[in-house]
Amino acid sequence: MSYCLGIESTADDFGVGILSFDGKILANIISAYTPERGGIHPREAARHHAEVAGEVVGKALQTAGITPQAIRVVAFSQGPGMGPCLRTGATAARALAAYLKIPLVGVNHCVAHIEIGKLIGETKDPLTLYVSGGNTLVSAFEAGRYRVFGETLDIAVGNCLDVFARDAGLHPEEGMPLGAMVEKLANQGQAFISLPYIVKGMDLSFSGLLTAAAQLLQRAKYPIEDLCFSLQETVFSMLTEVTERALAHTEKKEVLLTGGVAANKRLQSMLSQITDEHDARFCVIPKEYALDNGAMIAWTGILAYQHGMTIPIEKSFVKLKWRLDEVYAPWVRD
Ligand code: AMP
Ligand code: MG
């Protein structure tokens, strides 16, 4: 059997996954960098990745029960993401490929989220809502590529929730990301406070809404529970509106929800309602594969490798702003 080792390092997570070419996940090890305070500092996250890289690769091989020599191809997240983080993962991948004398494949992080979602969720041709700390997009495959039907014009929805939570004085706890803390408080909220609802065509904007919510926090006029509730209702309604329009337009029969924010039960219930109305199947990707992970890079690496899409080491530079709709994806059929 042939195996691919995939390295993910676009932001705060350093992940290594190992899959067999027939799609069995043998290992998916993640080491997350948690800043002591504030948001992710790219250079510090990259330092974390460099420190743990050897250990995480070793643990993945041990979990998979294979030797490095059994690896046929190495894949890495080539973009989009934070420069220093991407470069650290790319360096580890190049070193492995050179040492083992095997091909290297550069994978688009957003495509990887969709491909692992298709594998895990057993969907064939979904409309995907990918919502995380760094990305917010609605995408489906049309005419040879994953097209972007809607996206954020500024910050990602996960980032909006995280910054709001930090402004409110919340600190991420072990096993409880900031978005999940907002969700917990929102469940106790009752009154809806009106916030800017910004959908422009098929695109979304969260930064003005975040500023407005932060100003309400400062005025200390409303309970935090009501603010969290209102923030969630507003941002998730915006996401659901755009997803529903894309669904009506594409007439896809499956909707895939992935990314860190996919864990949110309120978002899940809003999307489940619209998919029911459109007779589509709704599929939420479990956390292990919805969060940034190495398994998704390995799987997409296998698909690309099988279509001859390897890159020479000297051309394997990272692409910080690599868009999903720029990716040639010959392994998917219309
Ligand atoms: P990722 O960027 O895919 O690693 O996902 C991290 C993002 O998911 C962060 O913005 C988290 O706050 C967010 N997140 C995690 N759990 C939840 C939740 N239950 N509700 C909303 N956001 C969440
Ligand atoms: Mg992450």
What secondary-structure arrangement, pairings included, does this model have?
Blueprint: E1 3-8, E2 13-20, E3 25-32, H1 42-64, E4 71-79, H2 83-100, E5 104-108, H3 109-121, E6 127-131, E7 136-142, E8 145-151, H4 157-167, H5 178-186, E9 199-200, E10 203-204, H6 207-219, H7 224-250, E11 254-258, H8 265-277, E12 281-284, H9 287-290, H10 294-305
Parallel strand pairs: 1-4, 4-5, 6-11, 11-12
Antiparallel strand pairs: 1-2, 2-3, 6-7, 7-8, 9-10
Describe this structure as you would to a colleague.
It is a single chain. This protein has helices at 42-64, 83-100, 109-121, 157-167, 178-186, 207-219, 224-250, 265-277, 287-290, 294-305, and strands spanning 3-8, 13-20, 25-32, 71-79, 104-108, 127-131, 136-142, 145-151, 199-200, 203-204, 254-258, 281-284. With 334 residues, it is of the alpha/beta class. A hairpin with a 2-residue loop joins strand 9 and strand 10. The chain contains 10 helices and 12 strands. The strands form 3 sheets. The protein has a 5-stranded mixed beta sheet with strand order 3-2-1-4-5, with helices on both faces. It has a 5-stranded mixed beta sheet with strand order 8-7-6-11-12, with helices on both faces. A two-stranded antiparallel sheet has the order 9-10. Bound molecules: adenosine monophosphate and magnesium ion. Residues 11-13, 133, 291-292 line the site of magnesium ion.
